[in-house]
Amino acid sequence: MDSSIKLLGEHMPTDPLYRGCSFVLSTAQPPKLNDQVIRKDHFSYREENSISISKYILSLGQTPIYFIKFYDKSTSGKEISITREELSIAWITGLNYYRHWHRLQEIVPEDLDFETYNRRNELLDEFKEWTDCFSELELALGMLTKLEQTGKFPKKWPMAYPDHIPSFSEYRFVWGLRSNAGPETLTSLFIHAALRMSHLDQINRSNAFQDLEERFGFKGFPVCSVYGLTTFERIERDENEVTE
After folding, report:
1. CA–CA separation, 167 vs 47, rounded Å?
2. Which residues are registered as beta bridge partners of 241?
3. d(CA 170, CA 176)
4. 9, 227 Cβ separation under 8 angstroms
5. Whole-number pLDDT of residue 34
6. Start-to-end Cα distance in the chain
7. pLDDT band at 2 (very low <50, low <70, confident <90, very high)
8. In whole angstroms, how far apart are CA 226 and each of 4, 19, 122, 174?
9. Is residue 44 within 8 Å of 144, Cβ to Cβ?
10. Could you state, in order of their start, the residue ranges of all structural domains in the chain?
11. One-character DSSP codes across 79-103
12. Residue 49 and residue 180: Cα distance in Å, rounded?
């Protein structure tokens, strides 16, 4: 396991297929940054003020950047925003729920009584919503990491979404990111995915299937935590923001 992952968190995934890890770990332990926060229409960022030779080569001579906050407008014109820390916490939250529901649905048999069958289907619906939200955010954070490394900016969001997305799965099926897509396909849907997961967590969905957990002896999946973002002291940053 990468020693930096051990130092910064517990039960973080080490599989490289989890593309959001780098973004989250960089949030917990940011590089050396310039003080000035530069605001664009749909995001704000800071530039790195000291880069290694390997980073310089990777960025093709561009100054690597560090995203601070993202902005969006819904179809009604309502303005929403989300910070880097909030995105990272939503990723950790989504990872924990995804792992938890995935393991639970594996141990609940399909062919028991009718009541258990219905409860398992409800669990699968819950698992699908978390999976879709987490997958969208996971892929987006991977793309944002690539943009940061190369000092490039995300394009303006190509479309707006409604204030409330009734079925996130349907929206992701049509407009969601694909695993083989590039940063040019990025939309603001990841912002809505993060906000949806934060909302679900706030209404305490973790106990939604406690009856199944107790009945089948499920003790839970080891919880991922990251220094400065979850169980430890929150990172606080001043935004000396300017508009460019």
Report:
1. 37
2. 37
3. 9
4. yes
5. 92
6. 41
7. low
8. 11, 16, 30, 33
9. no
10. 3-243
11. EEEEEHHHHHHHHHHHHHHHHHHHH
12. 32
Residue 235 gets which letter from DSSP? P
pLDDT surpasses 50 at 243? no
pTM for this model (two decimals): 0.87
The answer to whether the beta carbons of residues 226 and 92 sit under 8 Å apart is yes
The 8-class DSSP code of residue 14 comes to -
| Element (DSSP H or E) covering residue 123 | helix 114-150
Q: CB of 201 within 8 A of CB of 223?
A: no
For residue 176, give the amino acid letter: G
Q: Which residues on adjacent β-strands are paired with residue 73? A: 79
Measured in whole angstroms, the distance separating CA 95 from the mean position of its chain's CA atoms is 8
HSE (CB half, 13 Å, CA atoms) of 38? Answer: 12
For 27-44, b/e burial (b = at least 16 CB within 10 A) is bbebeebbeebbbeebbb
Residue 97 neighbours by CB under 8 Å, 6+ apart: 130, 134, 197, 200, 201, 205, 206
Determine how many CB atoms are found less than 10 A away from the CB of residue 201: 17
Render pLDDT for 90-133 as a digit per residue (tens, 0 to 9).
999 999 999 999 999 999 998 889 999 999 999 999 999 999 99
Beta strand ranges found along the chain (DSSP E): 9-10, 36-39, 43-47, 65-73, 79-83, 225-226, 240-243
Q: What percent of the chain has pLDDT over 90?
A: 63
